[in-house]
Design a protein that fits this description.
- Part of the 50S ribosomal subunit.
- The structure is a single chain.
- The chain is built from 1 helix and no strands.
- The chain is mostly helical.
Length: about 20
C-alpha cells in the first residue's frame, strides 16, 4: 500500500486549503 504518501500529501493539502 504505497498510498500512505498520497494520503499524507492530501491531508497536508486539505489543511493548507482550510
Amino acid at each position: 500500500f504505497e498510498d500512505a504518501k498520497k494520503v499524507r500529501f492530501f491531508k497536508s493539502n486539505s489543511e493548507t486549503i482550510k
